[in-house]
């Protein structure tokens, strides 16, 4: 279950980083990790909620505070992004509207943030001369059936294609795509734990066969950093992570509580896919991840071949129900403890 993603992380000493959506679960973990492991010149937390920025600022040690900047702004605002990205070396794009039901009922807002916001990050990065930009995606972007997934697929396409318009400019864009994050705000584990702590007599299960990919925040941070280290521009990086049935997750958290099948919510899949059969034709496999290659004439995979990357098998598909690795009850509990 070790998922340290051992590719060396990039040298972030004396670098300036900006993270959109930086007050979210991933942003907090990312900033904490970078401050403790590196000596960046500054990290800019770009987000639109001043209360979350204030609360996050209180958690940062005094010895790191001079390196952290809080910048109120929305990825929908191109001018504000351009202002924030001045003299920035690396951008991690984590801002998104992520709740599937909310996106289904508020489609215009989802499109403005997830699609137009992605376009704005690309344009601001190009104009500011940022060196590397990596965008956080989701398993729901592969063969999407809900608006959140479709908007993130559009975002992925925008970031991959951005390498075509950067030209000779030293600005490169890549994407990381992974599954459900254990313990992140709004995810099913904190939801179940809250119900259990408040004396729930049953836990709501959407479907007894539903499966999902699982990764911890720390693993997600390590994966993003290691992908930054090896990116050449245009890749979609997908980690090798375990799957688990949602009903088994509920049993592991509360073995003595009954389950109530409530049905699949609007826009929800029974199983998630991170690499479709069609994407499999341009996918390389490394020891700890898969890499979906861009279809660019100028793109070279020599940097991956040097790491012993190989083509996946014919008709390869990476889905939560056909995964070769499954999360056990004991490992789930261990990861929850580590997460806390």
CATH architecture classification: 3-Layer(aba) Sandwich
The gyration radius over C-alpha positions equals 20 Å
Low-confidence stretches: none
At the fourth CATH level, what is the homologous superfamily?
NAD(P)-binding Rossmann-like Domain
**Helical stretch count?**
12
**Shape category:** globular
Whole-number count of domains? 1
Overall mean pLDDT stands at 93
Biggest beta sheet summary: 10 strands, mixed
**Distance between the ends:** 17 Å
User: Per CATH, what is the topology?
Assistant: Rossmann fold
Describe the structure concisely for a colleague.
The chain has 340 residues and is an alpha/beta fold. The protein contains twelve helices and 17 strands. It has a single domain (16-339), classed as Rossmann fold (3-Layer(aba) Sandwich).
Task: Describe what you observe in this structure.
With 340 residues, the chain is of the alpha/beta class. The protein has a single domain, classed as Rossmann fold, CATH 3.40.50. Helices cover 38% and strands 21% of the residues. The strands form four sheets. The chain has a ten-stranded mixed sheet, with helices on both faces. Strands 7-9-11 form a three-stranded mixed sheet. α1 packs across α8, α3 crosses α5 and α9 crosses α12.
How do the helices and strands line up, and which of them pair or pack?
Elements lengths: L15 E5 L4 H13 L4 E6 L2 H10 L8 E5 L5 H7 L5 E4 L6 H6 L1 H22 L3 E7 L8 H19 L6 E7 L1 E3 L5 H10 L4 E4 L5 E6 H14 L5 E4 L3 E3 H8 L4 E4 L11 E3 L1 H4 L2 E3 L3 E4 L9 H4 L4 E2 L6 E2 L9 H11 L1
Parallel strand pairs: 1-2, 1-4, 2-3, 4-5, 5-6, 6-10, 7-9, 8-12
Antiparallel strand pairs: 9-11, 10-15, 13-17, 14-15, 14-16
